[in-house]
Write a structure and sequence with these properties.
This protein has 503 residues and is α/β, with parallel strands linked by helices. It is built from 19 helices and 20 strands. The protein has a domain of 276 residues: Vaccinia Virus protein VP39 (Rossmann fold).
């Protein structure tokens, strides 16, 4: 039933003029006018269509852009509905109704709920088959064309088994550039392990969070086994995976791959959220988080342009599953702590929605009295909590992380995410995070200038941030990914990504 509803919903979405323009997008995924204390904001909503069929009334949805004509005052419902968290919803099999949630809890629930979350049920990670022979390709354009062909073949094969118009398929640099990408990470890990004071007295222990298909793990272990056999003897690899389906896939990778069978005793897969971690790991270790920060839940904050007081974003979900965004002056302890730590760690030097001077803002408010708040700022509260976990339970860790510092097609706001889905093999961005839970990727950029300072403040460790290209120039065999005309997709395809390491 759910897939039928979603297919109908997406067809309605594509009927809108802005969405018709999106058909030109590449088929390759990448992945208030009120002065009262509580402010309600209009957003995309899935509004139930009432018919004589009660089941249809409950489940059938249309996409509608909210407008003043369509606007409903939900203030009374907001007062009555209970506040719930993503943790409280983890045991639910159906999406919640008649509740309100913090923005970060809504995003967390949408992405990670075990029953209907995006990563739990919808995601398929593209595997290109045999590795690309870049040296035999004329240029990057030929690589792009070949990649498109393999995407089509991969999805055609999936459709033969089970057709799916709303399949959420995306790729990672680990898969596109295997084994070269994983080998670069392995070289970094082995070199830094061997020059540390821990070698040879401690094992090379590697934790990876969000390991996807397990390809990076296999490529790293293959490289260490083949090139550093003495280090391999002391290597231990532990995957922390919140998704049960991906944890099973990673285990199957180990069993069915002939090259990986020798690694079985080296690997442990822990099927739990990193935020549930409660075991002290006192020994030295490396912690890998590759393209993980972008899917950490964020809070939404808006500011009064005159008083500069922050207000925190929440969302109300009504009887029909329609979403209404509210901002309230009560900042919860997690978001309040983030604002304090950020200010202290950066000395107050960070981007802010109220970039104009106070006098100019007062003048604009007098000329154009709208009562509106500032544009939203999306703050990475979950990322702060991840740094807390590292500092508390992994005191001897060294972090290796890569993620996007800039993203196209983001929604409105500072540090705002891309919210997108796939329909009939086309990527469809939308303009709000409040969309049907589980069918949309919510992907945030990372401000490494700010988060590097916060990581240092919370863990007491020093760091280095490099561009994705500069890091790979140092650690990859870049000759292996160079095309005949000298272009190198490994170095140029992720210009909008950075790498942060503990030093």
């Amino acid at each position: 039933m759910d897939s039928l509803i979603i297919s109908r919903l997406f067809r309605q979405l594509f009927a809108h003029r802005p969405c018709q323009q999106l058909r030109s997008h590449s088929s390759l995924p990448y992945r208030i006018a009120s002065t009262c204390p509580t402010q309600q904001v209009r957003c995309y909503a899935a509004k139930a269509r009432k018919t004589n069929d009660e089941a249809t009334t409950r489940n059938e949805s249309h996409w509608q852009q909210r407008s003043d004509i369509f606007s409903s005052d939900m203030t009374e419902e907001y007062k009555k509905y209970p506040m719930v968290t993503a943790d409280q919803l983890r045991g639910r099999r159906e999406r919640p109704r008649k509740v309100k949630m913090l923005t970060r809890d809504f995003i967390e629930d949408s992405l990670y709920n075990p029953s209907y979350g995006y990563f739990s049920k919808q995601v398929v990670i593209f595997t290109p088959g045999e590795s690309f022979n870049f040296n035999n390709l004329e240029n990057e354009n030929e690589f792009h064309m070949l990649l498109g062909q393999r995407y089509t073949e991969f999805e055609d094969k999936l459709d033969l088994e089970e057709p799916n118009e709303t399949r959420q398929l995306w790729h990672t640099p680990t898969e596109l550039f295997r084994p070269y990408y994983g080998e670069a990470m392995a070289q970094y890990l082995v070199s830094n392990y061997k020059i540390s004071s821990h070698y040879p007295y401690h094992d090379l222990t590697i934790y990876e969070m969000g390991a996807g298909n397990g390809t990076l793990m296999l490529n790293i272990l293959d490289y260490i086994r083949d090139h550093e056999p003495t280090v391999y003897e002391r290597t231990r690899f532990k995957i922390i995976e919140i998704s049960s389906s991906l944890a099973k896939l990673q285990a199957h990778q180990l069993i069915r791959s002939a090259d990986s069978r020798g690694h079985k005793d080296k690997v442990e897969i822990v099927n739990k959220s990193i935020f549930e971690w409660d075991q002290l790991v006192p020994s030295p270790c490396f912690f890998l988080a590759m393209e993980v920060f972008d899917n950490f839940a964020h809070d939404a904050i808006r500011y009064d342009p005159i008083t500069e007081e922050p207000m925190q974003g929440t969302v109300l979900i009504d009887t029909y599953g329609e979403f209404y965004e509210f901002y309230v002056p009560q900042i919860d302890p997690v978001a309040a702590r983030f604002l304090r730590v950020r200010h202290a760690a950066t000395g107050g030097n960070y981007p802010h929605p109220l970039h104009q001077g106070r006098i100019l803002r007062k003048l604009k408010s007098g000329l154009f009295p709208s009562g509106n708040l500032s544009n939203p700022e999306y703050i990475p509260t979950r990322l702060m909590q991840f740094f807390d976990i590292l500092g508390k339970y992994f005191p001897g860790h060294r972090l290796l992380t890569s993620d996007f510092h800039d993203l196209p097609d983001t929604i409105n706001g500072l540090n705002a995410p891309v919210v997108q889905t796939r329909y009939k093999r086309r990527t469809v961005p939308v303009t709000t995070p409040f969309v049907h839970q589980g069918y949309f990727d919510v992907l945030f950029p990372t401000d490494f200038n700010v988060m590097e300072q916060m990581y240092r403040a919370l863990t007491g460790k020093l760091t280095r941030v490099l561009s994705h290209e500069d890091f790979l120039k140092r650690w990859a065999y870049v000759e292996e990914t160079e095309t005949k005309n000298g272009e190198n997709p490994l170095l140029t395809w992720y210009k909008n990504a950075s790498v942060m390491t503990t030093v």
